[in-house]
Amino acid sequence: MSVKVLGGIKVLDFSRVFAGPAATQVLGDMGADILKIEPPGGDEARYYGMTRERLEKFGGTSPSFLALNRNKRSMEIDLRHEDGKAIARKLAAGVDVVVHNYRPGVMERLGLGYEALAEHNPRLIYAEFSAYGRQGPLSHVGANDLALQAHSGLISITGEPGRSPVRCGSAIVDLHGSLALVAGILGAIIHRGQTGRGQRVEASLMLSAAHLMSYFYTEYWMDGTMHQPMGTANHLSVPNQAFPAADGEVVIIASTDEMWQRFAHAMGPETLDIPEFSHVFARRQNRVTLVEAVSAITRTKTCAQIIDILGKAKVVVAKINTIGEAADNPQLVAANGRIDLQVGEHSVGSVASPFQLEAVDMNSATTPPALGHHTDDILAEFGFSRDEIDSFRQSGAFGKAKATMDA
Amino acid sequence: MSVKVLGGIKVLDFSRVFAGPAATQVLGDMGADILKIEPPGGDEARYYGMTRERLEKFGGTSPSFLALNRNKRSMEIDLRHEDGKAIARKLAAGVDVVVHNYRPGVMERLGLGYEALAEHNPRLIYAEFSAYGRQGPLSHVGANDLALQAHSGLISITGEPGRSPVRCGSAIVDLHGSLALVAGILGAIIHRGQTGRGQRVEASLMLSAAHLMSYFYTEYWMDGTMHQPMGTANHLSVPNQAFPAADGEVVIIASTDEMWQRFAHAMGPETLDIPEFSHVFARRQNRVTLVEAVSAITRTKTCAQIIDILGKAKVVVAKINTIGEAADNPQLVAANGRIDLQVGEHSVGSVASPFQLEAVDMNSATTPPALGHHTDDILAEFGFSRDEIDSFRQSGAFGKAKATMDA
């Protein structure tokens, strides 16, 4: 399995909550040394969705923190404290990559802005993840995943026709943004190999959301078209939506006329293989009748039966799984998609990075760290003496750890 | 603006529709030379959502094709034809990266499998994008974005409580998968710099969707928790959802007690700054009353007024924009998020790659190519003579171009 792709790359990670931590987890999976700087009390995501039962069983580590923080080391540093700032600046002088998601101006005020750091460390790659970008009228506006689902227009096309729209259930803008940040950092590493110099890398919730919406924006820019929510259906083709089965729901996609022929023959040629449904335009026009005709058949069969029949006919079909059915589907493990972490006495699954490199192991992992667990080790590695570390602790540079449950 | 990050990198791109083309567009924005191999008639996405009006105005290029195919050159090759296969193999011997999204086994049958190509080109990076991965019980099952929204459990948490769930309105699994593929390819380029050897890179709709669901899976694996759709709300905090304004809807997020205090003081301390709402647990318990109390206030104000008040109070807020409002918001241009393309006599916007590298220009673009426009040029660059090219054309190696409207 030879070298890790990012072996030897040190990442100083000031980011919190989802997008930044998800990005540095991928870099950690690729072998980078992730030094997670947490404020006193820790990344607030440590406490998201915690209950008394989970606190007792899993030692205060939330599902989202566990999901996004393997392969990291944790330091607790109070950046409002002068010694804390000095420590952070010294670390930044000796790493390859800095990642942060503070609002524009915050890092500069801490003496940790790109220009200040690059002066002493011209090979530094400085990755900033913001809400709306560093420049422009909204650059100082705060946001989160839901805010960008709203701002981007994604919510406006998600929901049932004629009813209020809904959010996409997961933090997709955050997670998509995390991969954007990863791609930018990897690009900057390649560029540094060519030029010997680092650079600033930017990603944002807004660019991430806009990328997810890209073909809707282009269609609007072409001729003003704005699509509306269509439940599980979409505007491109029919059938391309959910249908009821005897024991659940399945989605069926047969966009082209050829796929529709295969589908109709496999499911019920008597009622489906008729001229009203044979052409793509006709199917769009006769959507309601078609959905009724298909539903009349699917209702009489189980999900497994429908998947079997349509799988053989090479028509795209899938069950609408619950989270449990999805998480426990054996295909996830077969595709190297699950990494198990030891949390106290429990083994807890986490989802692998969404790509695999055949010549390197992306799936070995250390468990998400306890808050501040590696503070002393890391400081020693960066040349601080035992006495200095003790004196920082006394001066409050690491803060006075106290857990909060405010999230 | 110096060198492009991927200057000199040649990518042979067999992928079609969304995820693969979106990935190679990002590589093209970074300076790679993308050779898009299209089957006779072209990538079917060229015809998605086309109408007679668009055909006339934009010369047969669909919104999604325009959105995801800038910075590429197009070749039309019939891979079912023996000469077509031979051409593809010769090209593959001289490129840095091959990208495809055929079902497992198809490229092998064409003589274009990884092992066969790597034998002659050990530096080759071979990027495969599949539905469920190359191995395991579902590896031969076809899928698309909606199928993985269903399979992954994402649909099960998207929608209104107590009603049938809905799809997330955009092809988020495809687009997230595109960045996974980009990150994998960039990682493999870095690794090749260290080892001199290419490797196989894998990404899939399933790993992409699982990554988007990662913290839901981990929560389920911890203690069996499965969340349900909550409209625009979520399970982590209150308020964290849409509220009605006099002229539209806004989302408001005030998760922590401190944010709630700022929110309550800014919007209406009389009815909001009360003990029943002051603590995070109390707000979750009194969700219905709280949402009513907040709505009573937001209904009396416009979106702009609410955004102004809460912006000043540093509470996260955003308008639920239409696609047009989102696409035309000046912040997108300010953050370098829009790239204009010349299509015939029209200028059409497209969304930039979702990250920016300060030292290189990511936003210069060539317009998505007409089908087969560069076939002859590329073949000449790879050493084919004029006579050979003519004879390929006569033998049908490029197919007999005919547009279809089947999508």
Automatic annotation (TrEMBL), chains A, B:
Keywords: Transferase
Gene Ontology terms for molecular function: transferase activity
Database matches in SUPFAM superfamilies: CoA-transferase family III (CaiB/BaiF)
Superkingdom, natural source: Bacteria
InterPro entries (alphabetical): CoA-transferase_III_domain, CoA-Trfase_fam_III, CoA-Trfase_III_dom3_sf, CoA-Trfase_III_dom_1_sf
The keyword Transferase belongs to this UniProt entry's keyword annotation: yes
Protein name according to UniProt: CaiB/BaiF CoA transferase family protein
Source organism (scientific name): Devosia honganensis
Taxonomic lineage of the native organism: Bacteria, Pseudomonadati, Pseudomonadota, Alphaproteobacteria, Hyphomicrobiales
